[in-house]
Structure formats: structure tokens, C-alpha cells
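Good day; I would like, with your permission, to put a structural problem before you. A protein sequence and the C-alpha cells that stand for its backbone fold form the material at issue. The record follows directly beneath this note:
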Amino acid sequence: MIEIKNITRTYNTGKSEVNALKEVSLNINMGEFVAIMGHSGSGKSTLLSILGFLDKPDSGSYSIMGRETSGLTDDELSVLRNNICGFVFQQFHLMPRMTVRDNVSLPLIYSGLNEKMTFVDERIRSVGLAHRIDHMANELSGGEQQRVAIARSMSNDPLILFADEPTGNLDSKTEKDILAILTSLHERGKTIIMVTHEEEIAHYAERVIYMKDGEIISDGPSSKRKRTKPTNGYVRDKHVPLFETNRSAMTLGALKDSIVQALTSITTHKMRSFLSMVGILFGVASVIAMLAIGEGAKEAVAEDLKSMGSNMLSVRPGAMHARGVSLEAGTVTRFTQRDSDIIGRLPEIENATPGVNGSAQLVYGNKNWSSMVMGVNEEYEPINSATPIVGRFFTKEENSARRKVALLGTTVTKELFGKENPIGKMIKINKINFRIIGVLPKKGSSPFRDRDDVVVVPINTAMYRVLGVRYVDYIDVKVKSPDLIDNAIKSISSLVKKEHRFSDDDSFQIRDMTELRTALQGTTRTMGLLLGIVAAISLIVGGIGIMNIMLVTVKERTREIGVRRAIGAFRRDIMSQFLTESALLTVSGGFGGIIFGILISYILSAAAGWAIEITPFSIALSTSFSVFIGIVFGFWPAYQASMLKPVEALRQD
């Protein structure tokens, strides 16, 4: 069954090399009960580890059932440990936070043979622990834990049972009970290889091998126990492969076990887990809050641009040159309302409105306020989205008749009238009485002035009654479509040059609001990106905290990793287990961060007056990124865990 030839194994301790095995050769037949004896350092445990595929020899040949194992991959060795081997350790090596049933079923989980779960309770009853089946492993006595370990070693019906000092931590009575169980298993046909340093224990076996300094010094039958003929017992299912795995991916049972173990680990170390989540929580909250502020800024800019009007051009005078001769300094181009009318008749133009500006002193009762007066025509309302929130806009007839009517911005309304309704009231504009007919919608502040600190009056009234001017300061033009803006600029330029006999473009300016809009939107996007980067850095810092905690967790659970590897877990199973824990930590922190981020956003909005916009995209993005961070930063600890050799992990304190 087992044949090893010239096996050597050397350990490098850093300062020196230890030759644990020296050219060891051995044959073990099926159904034998073999005891390996020797003093500490004789090499008996190393030999057992190699026989059980927990370790690899440096040189030599090891074949089992006629198949050479020296060239097998790590996953193939895991399959052999799961299908052929069962392990009983001196320290029991049970999962303390799992029930007896869950401990015994672990080998079946990693084999993918979930249909064999019915044998788990049978194995537990066979070692006399049916009454403790739902108890946690850490609630059992030493003898009971060793019984569970035996039941676990037999759950997948292995061909060979490896026992490493199985009675070393037990009292004499429990020792006899455990040995009786092993003897019973042997009598039913099970091959048992046991390591011990006690003569009395060794003679429970039929064959005793003595080792010293890494060599076999004697190999013979036990002097106290004769070889018995195995009786027919449970026969292993012939359809269960010994050298191949019937699973190509992680089993559902292994995934469920990973989730349960991750939750158990998180809840067992509540404070540590909470502190790990805090980093992710603040990172996600920062992402949501920053994106909310960024989106709010975009919406605010969009509203401001909307209030400025869409598809807008502004025609303004510049320095004038006539027939190539410069006029006296200070002379500028002059536009009139007629220029506005002819520009408004161009095919690309929807409408045009001239405008004049000037400062004004406003008086209402005993209240005084300095503001800006704007003279416009009736087309100003649709072009500049200036439909009054209260009252109405003036008409074409009121403009032609130079009526003394006015509309107030919200700032002027607040300063002169407070909470009083201004409609129908009379105010003085530069000592001239005007009747208030409307209140303009809120425009907000620009870097240069408060755009709501304004009074709008008919342009003819402003020019001839208030400001005393003959020319307009600008002409606002609304183009029919954004696609026509370039053509409109060319048409206006040609028309103005023709009407005023200008020879160059320096004589006037045509300002394209689209350029301003693009610049503002670009600035807002840049601000949002920068805020997002700052928030992402917070998430990365949280991810580093997760990685640190996961490295500590791997250290704490090194022996558990060794046990799982010994009973057949693949490297990907171990990696998935720790990645699952890392992901659960970040997801938990992420959900907390969503709530906290929304709360912080509204607090900032209320305290600073900032506009915010919380979108499902920002929530999905921050949550996804937090999970991504958990997986990325959890990968290295998980990889470290998966790369641990079973024999080295089992020896860790």
C-alpha cells in the first residue's frame, strides 16, 4: 500500500541544518496497525507528516497504491489528504467556535461529497458523543475533543488513519478509551499509523518501528499483540476517486463555511472588527459626502447657467476704427435699439433685447438702498428666464410709452420691503416715482456682484427718464439652436460691420455664453474629481487598516489553516475564506458609511448652505469601491494564508 525509498528531509533552522530523515525506506501494507517510536528529535513526526502528505521529502521516492506522489501538485496532494488520510493530533486541533457536528463534517465540505453528510451523525455516535453533537468544541473535555477528532478523521472514510501522539494530553482512563476506539477501527479493516513515545501505547499496534537520529533502527512485530485478521466492515464507495477531485471550483458547502467562519471571527473580536470597519466607514462616508457636494455644485451651476439664459450671445461695443483711421482716445462703438431690431431679424436668431445699466438710489418710506437699474425691453423675460415669481413683466406698450413701472430683484425686495408684499407699492428711483409690478426670480451671486441686487425697468424709461443716455450698453441675443451659434456669430459680425462700416472685429465684441458654460462645467467637474480623489484616499487608508487586521487574523488562525489544509482544503479554499472575511468587514463598514455619509451631507448643507445632490450612482460607486478595496487589501493576507504549508501551520503556537 505504502512504499517509500531513500526518503530524506532536512530543515534549515537559520543557523544550522537538521537532518530529520536520512535515507529512510519503508513498506506498509493495507490493514496494518503500525506504531512509530523514538525519542524527541528522532524523526518520527517528520516521517508521519511525509506519509500523510503534510510535508514533502527533499529526495527519495514515495508511492501509494502503486502511484508515485513526488510530482503531484499542491491541489492533488490536498485531494490525497482528503480522500486517503484521516488525522488525529495530540492537540486535537478542533475548530473551537464550531459545533461537534460542524467539526466532523469539515472533510466532507472540502471533498464536495455533501451527499455523505448523513454519515456525520453516525461517526459521532460511533465515538460515544451523540449527546454532545450540538455543543461547541471548546465546551468539551480533552477526552471528548479527541473523540471528535477521531470522528472527524473517519468522516470521509479514509484508507489510512494517522495518529500523532493521540493520547499525549489525556488521563489514563481516557487514554484507554481512545486506544480502544483505534483498536476497534483497526479490527474493522482500517490501516492505522500512530506516532508515540510510550512503549505501552506502542504495543497496541501489531508492528512497531523504532527511530533514532532520523533513521529506522528496528522494525518488527509487537511483542504483546498478535496480528489479527481484519473483519469485514464498512467498504469504501468504489466510485469515490482517490487521486482526483470531483470539484473544479469552490463548493457551496465551503462557501457557506467561509461566510459562517468570517461572521464568527468578526463577532468574536467585536472591538477590533469595529475599529477596522471605522476606516471603511469614514472612507465611504467621505465619498458619498464629497460626491453629493460635487453633484450639488453641478446642479447649482446648471441653475445659474439656466438663469443666464440658454443659447445666449452678448454683443458689446469696443474701440471704434472707421475706414482704417483711429478716432480720439475714449471713443467707442455705439449701438442703438435699431441694431437690436435688425439683429433679431436674422434667420438664426430667435430674439434680441438691448440693455442699459446704471447705478440708482432707491427709496421706500424711510428705507434707502443703493442698487443697479437695468433698462431692457419685453424680450428680456424669455431670453433670460426672468419670469417673475410674484406679479408680472412689463408689456411692449408700457415700454413704448415709457411707463414708470419696475421689477425688483430678491435682494432689493428684502432690503426695502422685508416680508411686506411689494406689488403695487411706489418707490423712488433716483427721485422718480415707480410702481412695483413684479419680483424677479432668484439668480444668486456671481464672483463680481449680487445678481439679485437689481431693479429692472423698461429700456425707454431707463434711457430717457432715469439714466439720460442715447445708446445701449449691450444687446443680448438668443440663438434658435446651439448648433447655430457659430453661424449666428458670423451673421451678426457681418451685419454689424455692414451697418456701422467697421473694418475689423476689434470694433465690437460678441461674447459666447456657451464658452462660459463650458468653462464653469469643466471647473465643476474638476472640483468633483478632486473631492472624489480625496475621498478615495480615505478609503485606501481604511483598506490598509483592513489589511493590517487580516494579517493579524492570519497569524492568530495559523493552526486552524493547518488543520483545514490537513483535511483537504485547497489553497483557493483558504484564500476564499479570508477574502470573504475581508469583504464582509468592508461591506459592513460600507453600509454604515452610506448612512453616515448621507447624514454628513445634510449637516454640511444645513451648516454651510451648500447645495448637495445624493444620487444612487454615488451610493453604488462608494459601496462597490469599498468592496473592491476590501478584496484588494485582503488579497495579500489571504494569499499568505493559502501559501502556508500544512505541517508548518500545525506547528505554530
In short: The radius of gyration is 44 Å. The CA atoms of residues 409 and 452 lie 5 Å apart. Residues 513-556 form the longest helix (44 residues). The chain has 20 helices and 22 strands.
